[in-house]
């Protein structure tokens, strides 16, 4: 089947396609481009000079039409699979936020420029101001790491950009990754190719509309034409498979030919990420792209994105990821966007130096004011009112122009591990443990495993998705029993466990305080008062 058209390829046509040399494929591509140029020239000569300048009304009509095409197309222009498109309900979460959000901004860059600058960018959600007259800069070649405290508004800012609630030119195609691909009967490869095929149709429709309304001299046509020239149908399947392979798809894990409806949410998120990377839009917005990736896939993604030639805006809580990928950091701080050249480590060094300078300036100013205040007080006491009045005016002027005390960065979380009694070895021994969910020897994830975990152990468990890391933790926690062999934890061993899937641990019907009291009830050996829990929860950001 032809993954571009969706039609069966006959044997004769298949032979012709595979027999084409690189030069012949290039010639075909050039011929298609020449045909488009010829059509553009024909439309230009037919329209005449009187149609060359449609004015502001024509420009507005073009923008509105492209916006409609964007919303009804594949979605790369308005968020892609991760951010909407023809999928109907895919934007429901974003739309719910958008209904509570008020966004303003003024386009300061040229309407046809690929480098976008938005001034007076403000975002307010339910009366809470997140950004106030900030400047947004999205330039080709920038790989922006978007950082800020949890709850500062990063997600709302990204959504506002993805939904074009600020005046980003419509010919700038963008993709916002924030949720998994839809479960359908399309395979991973087909889902990735379908997306870009629909994007080609959207761009060609936008190109035709601009030709009809504004003429062939419209500068936006050059941007669209360049974008179309990047999308070569002859290489679609190869490139899609290359990206999916880098993200961990294989016959040993999840085959690329598996339907997305038969994949878990984590693997459908990888499909959505593959769509974003394959589309390679002018503006790529990624919100925590490494959440569902194993170590090997994370390393591959870091390398891939570190060479992204267009504009990338990414949110990540991984310092290594930000250091490898980003060449600029955007800090959402005090309702403003502050830009720092370099990666995350460079940002930390620059901010630390800035804070030291600001604190020294503040301390010097405070010392100068105190010195003047002492002088005024002394001269008043000595009867030198005129001299005291003169210095008092100087003091009042300095106070009116004084800088406020710098607000230094602070840790939002404080991790404290309470002291506990050290148990003698062996604490958690595995003796000849084998395990398979089916119980069959041929399905063993582990075979005659002999390991021991003691109180001094510090273990990092790594491996590809599906190799059994979570299963091993469940065996340790006693949620699963060994198919063969023995697991004998120390009788006094208590295990604290954090699960990446919070819905498997948390009761959505309970408040945080109630959850902790019911999860850790008082007993003869464990007693905690209500006051203890109320004082302990703020340490991890729960008020």
Protein architecture, described:
Strands 5-6-7-4-8-9 form a six-stranded mixed sheet, sandwiched between helices. Strand 1 (101-107) and strand 2 (116-125) form a beta hairpin. By secondary structure, it is an alpha/beta fold. The chain has 17 helices and twelve strands. Residues 1-20 and 47-91 have low confidence and may be disordered. Helix 7 packs parallel to helix 10 (265-279) and helix 9 crosses helix 10. The two termini are 57 Å apart.
Brief rundown of the structure:
The chain is an alpha/beta fold and 543 residues long. The chain contains 17 helices and 12 strands.
Strand percentage lies at 5-15%
Strands, count:
12
Give a short account of the largest sheet: 6 strands, mixed
**Total helical elements:** 17
**Low-pLDDT ranges:** 1-20, 47-91
Structure keywords:
six-stranded mixed beta sheet, disordered N terminus, three-stranded antiparallel beta sheet, 543 residues, 12 strands, alpha/beta, flat
